[in-house]
Amino acid sequence: MGSRSPKHPRGARSRALAAMATLALLGVAGLAGCSGDGSGGGGEGGDGSRSTNATTRFVSGSGTVTTMPPDERRRAPAVAGTTLDGKRIALADYRGKVVVLNVWGSWCAPCRKEAPDLAAAARALRAKGVEFLGINTRDVSRQPAQAFVRTFDVPYPSIYDPNGDQLLGFRATLPPSAIPSTLVIDKQGRVAARVLGNVSRRTLEQLTTDVTGLR
């Protein structure tokens, strides 16, 4: 993020430092995920979830997948911000729909690996009422992220979140503690599943089918 001038407001500096600290807590596995094969860290009991019945399994090439039974799902935080194109958007805009929420950065190799599958899944699953929303994190400017979207023809919007502010509220649910991470939000606005590391189209289709009940 670079050093800040003393002229900047103390509140802005404190907010940035708090976001960095939280990313450090949530994102140690994320650094490993982006430097390795994308399988990402976060074993059972280390994801911040208080559930005892969450199902955690390793999917070859796609990272760690955790699913939550309906009666133990926690509500997703109020994610909202400005897209890479400068438009206001919020998770609440998709109320009543299943949402796939992908956390990514243009600098992240596993994010580039998964991008074609995410784009294909978004187009295929729209007919089933599944919406996609991205959170672009730790890009110092919008330009690299916008180039990423053009390169991979990403058909859904992403919130520009360079400091990771949007990730803070997930600490009480299934935190996206790797980059990339993907969450599936059910129709009631609860976090139903999480993938740490790059995700495949097949995994997304399986997870959203389980959440929507549509075959």
Automatic annotation (TrEMBL):
Chief subcellular location: other
PROSITE patterns attached to this UniProt entry: PROKAR_LIPOPROTEIN, THIOREDOXIN_1, THIOREDOXIN_2
UniProt-listed GO biological process terms: cytochrome complex assembly
Polar residues: bias regions: 50-67
Entry GO CC: cell envelope
Keywords, sorted A to Z: Cytochrome c-type biogenesis, Disulfide bond, Isomerase, Redox-active center, Signal, Signal-anchor, Transmembrane
Disordered: annotated segments: 38-72
Domain of life, source organism: Bacteria
Domain named Thioredoxin: residues: 70-215
Biased composition (Gly residues): 38-48
Signal peptide: 1-32
Keyword DNA-binding: no
Cell location: Cell envelope
Molecular function, one GO term: isomerase activity
Protein name: Thiol-disulfide isomerase/thioredoxin
Native source species: Actinopolymorpha rutila
